[in-house]
Design goal:
About 20% of the residues lie in helices and about 25% in strands. The chain is an alpha+beta fold and about 260 residues long. A hairpin with a 2-residue loop joins strand 3 and strand 4. It is globular.
Length: about 260
């Protein structure tokens, strides 16, 4: 892990010097999930986010065609400042570049969505261990059987991220993360993974598996990768997202997101 500022981390990413997962980088700063869509799809996607605030808590929406996000940070360029992107064409993942400048269009709208990496800082500060941070891995993420509320052309199942905890730590984690509704808030499930349709806890669809020790339970939070499932379902002609675990690092402070 580095101890660089948010701006310095973005410059490192923009230069191509770093393209990995961002958990633990620029500690104290809000990180954000990304979805970019053509303007004629943006209204439906905005309503999808508003209808599903647990997995899709909106932090910012750009102006049409504008790659900057002044409310999230000075000098942000959404075309270069995410470590790795995903490009979907007609709902099919076709590429995973580290720079989307050549793909940018003057009708694109960027949606920035809260990320659970923000509440992890509060968990760690309270002494609640976070396994993937300890192991320097990408958080494990799973596609579930939980239906999102449809909106326009967008629908699909919720994606969740998982952190194994002792029951005592899980209770404390619920209390802590409830204070952060703009970055997914309290968990949506804990215990039996099969109850929410997780097919194999050792084989996440996104991110990296982490061990669950004896006496621990898996705790699941709504995840900002959910829009990627909705994009696969809606099949817009083009959409660009972050690659799971590789976020936009903003100038906002995590402490400012707490409601208590």
């Amino acid at each position: 892990m580095t101890t660089l500022s948010a701006a310095a981390e973005r410059l490192r990413i923009r230069s191509g010097a770093y393209s990995g997962q961002t958990a633990g980088l620029a500690r104290g700063h809000v990180q954000a999930n990304l979805a970019i869509l053509p303007a004629d799809w943006a209204g439906d996607f905005l309503r999808f986010c508003q209808a599903n605030p647990k997995p899709c808590p909106l932090l910012a929406v750009s102006e049409v065609g504008d790659p900057t996000l002044p409310t999230l940070g000075v000098g942000i360029d959404i075309r270069t400042d995410v470590p790795r992107y995903r490009v979907y064409q007609d709902g099919v993942l076709t590429d995973g570049p580290t720079d989307i400048t050549d793909l940018w269009r003057d009708d694109f709208v960027s949606f920035l969505i809260g990320c659970s990496f923000s509440f992890e800082e509060a968990l760690l500060a309270d002494g609640v261990p976070v396994r993937h941070v300890e192991l320097n891995r990408n958080v494990p993420m799973y596609e579930t059987n939980i239906d999102c509320v449809p909106a326009g052309r967008f629908s699909g199942k919720m994606v969740v991220s998982m952190r194994p905890m002792t029951p005592r730590d899980a209770i404390r984690a619920i209390q802590i993360t409830s204070r952060f509704p703009s970055v997914h808030g309290a968990p949506v499930h804990f215990g039996d993974p099969a109850a929410i349709g997780v097919r194999d806890i050792a084989d996440p669809e996104h991110g990296e598996a982490v061990p669950i020790a004896p006496g621990e339970v898996p705790v699941f939070w709504a995840c900002g990768v959910t829009p990627q499932v909705a994009i696969r379902t809606a099949r817009p002609p083009i959409a660009i997202t972050h690659s799971p675990g590789t976020m936009l690092i903003t100038d906002l402070l995590n402490t400012h997101l707490s409601v208590l």
